[in-house]
Amino acid sequence: MRIKVCYFARLREKLGISDEIIDLPDNCGNISSVRAVLQKRDEIWQQAFASDQSVLSALNHEMVTSDHQLEAGDELAFFPPVTGG
Amino acid sequence: MIRLQMEDFDTGAEINALHSMGSHIGAVVSFVGFVREFSDESRLDAIELEHYPQMTQKSLERIATEAKSRWNIERVIIIHRIGRLTPDEQIVFVGVASSHRSEAFSACEFVIDTLKTQAPFWKKECFSTGDQWVDAKLSDTSKSDRWKSN
Q: What domains can be seen in chain B, in order of their start residue?
């Protein structure tokens, strides 16, 4: 299945990409599984996603925890803790 | 009402708009956040505010809706600027109108505390020596968390 993945702020700069479409096995499952797939890309990706606290996720524009299940067509975003206001 | 904009805002006009809802409005409480000139001991040239356009509006609307459900308030205005801002510029406005002050104070504080940990904005500080992303503060998380149990 295909999903869109977006990256913001420090994470976007570190990874050198703002968004991409990725193909996942249909049984890929939840956000944690996507993180595991992305971490296998190379050392930069491995480090970027190493700490659970330093990368938050939003699924279809709602902040969620990593155990959320994914469906085809979802928009998944990864970003550092927010610092607005 | 939620507004995301590059341009500045007029605090007085926003407070008047909140008050002009009717003669039952007895209190307007507002918070304005500004860009500080110094970060630690370094003088800032500017900050850059990035956000997640498809999510930001929705996230702020949810915070305003929750404030209205928790306190007896009439109206909430949230304005957040994005892009490049220089020291002393206004960043964010939160205004709450209600019949009585205590509800407006609590709701206003709830909105800004929650915005700081839930709304998808990220600040980058720009110095003459280079740029640096701002780290989230634990103190902001604890301020936001205290509303969960109240």
A: 2-149 (3.90.1170.40)
Q: Which residues pair with A54 in a beta bridge?
A: none
Query: With an 8 Å Cβ cutoff, is B104 touching chain A?
Result: no
Whether chain B has a CB inside 8 Å of the CB on A84: the answer is yes
Task: Tell me the CATH number of domain A2-79, given options 3.10.20.30, 3.40.50.1000, 3.40.50.720, 3.30.365.10.
Answer: 3.10.20.30
ipTM of the complex: 0.93
The answer, for B69 touching chain A at a CB cutoff of 8 Å, is: no
Set of chain B residues whose Cβ sits within 8 Å of the Cβ of A85: 33, 80, 91-92, 112, 115-116, 119, 121
3-state percent breakdown (helix, strand, coil) of chain A, nearest 5: 25, 30, 45
Tell me the pLDDT of chain B (150 aa) as tens digits. 999 999 999 999 999 999 998 889 999 999 999 999 988 888 999 999 999 999 999 999 999 999 999 999 999 999 999 999 999 999 999 999 999 999 999 999 999 999 999 999 999 999 999 999 999 988 888 888 889 866
Contacts of B60 (CB under 8 A, 6+ apart): B2, B4, B78, B80, B115, B119
Residue of B nearest to A60 (CA): B55
Contact B52 A61 (CB under 8 A): yes
